[in-house]
Specification:
It is a single chain. With about 50 residues, the protein is mostly helical. The protein has a domain at about 20-50. The chain contains 2 helices and no strands. The relative contact order is 0.07.
């Protein structure tokens, strides 16, 4: 069981803590991009419903 736990922890956190900032920035960027895409899609369908 110990042999299975170690690689899992290394897979979850392969880099030290001071490098987690880049990961956080990536996650935030992806989140903002996803929210923006969803808002654009909702706006497009909303305007199409009004015009249609």
């Amino acid at each position: 069981m110990e042999r299975r736990k170690k690689p899992l922890l290394q897979y979850i956190r392969p880099e030290p803590v001071y490098r987690d900032r880049y990961w956080l920035v990536r996650v935030i960027g992806l989140g903002v991009w996803a929210v923006g895409t969803i808002i654009l899609m909702v706006y497009a369908t909303y305007s199409l419903l009004i015009k249609g």
